[in-house]
Amino acid sequence: MKNLIFISLSLFSTVITTAQTSFDLDTIYANDQKNVALFFPEPIRQGITGSENYVFTYNREKGQYFGLLQAKPGNESNLLVVNKNGAVFSYIVKYRKKLNRLNYFIPTSKSIGNEKPIALDLTTIVKREDTIDNRTYYYYKFCSYLIGRKQRIGRIKKRNEGIVLSVENIVFDKEELYFVIQVENKSSLDYDLNFLKLSVETRKKGKKKSLQRLYQEPVFKYSLPSKAKENETVRLVYVLPKFSIGNDRRAILELNEKNGERNLKLKISHRFINNPN
């Protein structure tokens, strides 16, 4: 990221804008039975939905930090919210009969940009080099680069009823490990993703052998899909803080199907974790 210091201000502004608008938008689910509350870091000045079957209400006269979303059955749409300070937030909105979440607390880092371009001098660029936005942009660009490469680390694959889960590559860069993951649906049914988790499993020695599992939380997820359609292959990247494991431990990648039983657990040997590309 240090080469960002040397680029022109106009190019920096263009790069940041491109990075923000290229991110995959988060999805918020709503229905016509309950209010889904969205809490923002600044008072809401404007909120717009792309379809009439979605309604976002907020106090237009007295700025408040929250708005309420409701939806009627229909196609997915989008929600655009502008805060009082000009910060812009954008989401995909979908109807769902049963809601698992009713409150969303939106951090400032989720803003996709500002409605008014903010001029940055060279000093500001240097100070922002290690901020979340710039790290996120770096993750995004490097993950995109890795997805386009054909490099493989080895044969790490698991199959179950037409679903194939594989780790195509593990790359070490700076202080993170990048796991390039592929989900292939060779079945005639769509695969709805419930979760995809990576954990480290330790085998305890002794008469009573047991397993201890510690989940590893990614610092960034690139192109994580909500489903893999029939005969579709999707590729994604998980970015995790650098770690290594002993020969008595192994990493486990778990793929879990929503409302289904086509679940997979892919074991990754310590030698792949400790010797990334």
Annotate the secondary structure layout:
Elements lengths: L8 H14 L4 E4 L5 E4 L4 E6 L4 E4 L8 E6 L5 E7 L3 E9 L7 E3 L7 E2 L7 H6 L4 H17 L8 E4 L2 E11 L2 E10 L5 E14 L5 E7 L3 E3 L4 E2 L4 E9 L7 E9 L6 E5 L1 H5 L3
Parallel strand pairs: 1-7, 2-8
Antiparallel strand pairs: 2-5, 3-6, 4-5, 6-7, 7-9, 10-11, 11-12, 12-17, 13-14, 13-16, 13-18, 15-17, 18-19
The CATH topology assignment of the largest domain is Immunoglobulin-like
* Helical coverage, percent range: 10-25%
**Biggest beta-sheet profile:** 5 strands, mixed
CATH class of the largest domain: Mainly Beta
Task: Report the order of strands and helices.
Answer: HEEEEEEEEEHHEEEEEEEEEEH
Gyration radius, in Å:
22 Å
Q: What is the helix tally?
A: 4
Average pLDDT number: 83
Q: End-to-end distance, in Å?
A: 20 Å
- Tell me the overall shape: globular
Fraction of residues in β-strands: 35-45%
Total domain count:
2
Under the CATH scheme, the architecture of the largest domain is Sandwich
Enumerate the spans where pLDDT stays under 50 for 5 or more consecutive residues.
Answer: 1-22, 120-130
| Tally of strands | 19
Summing up helix and strand content along with how strands pair, one would put the structural category as alpha+beta
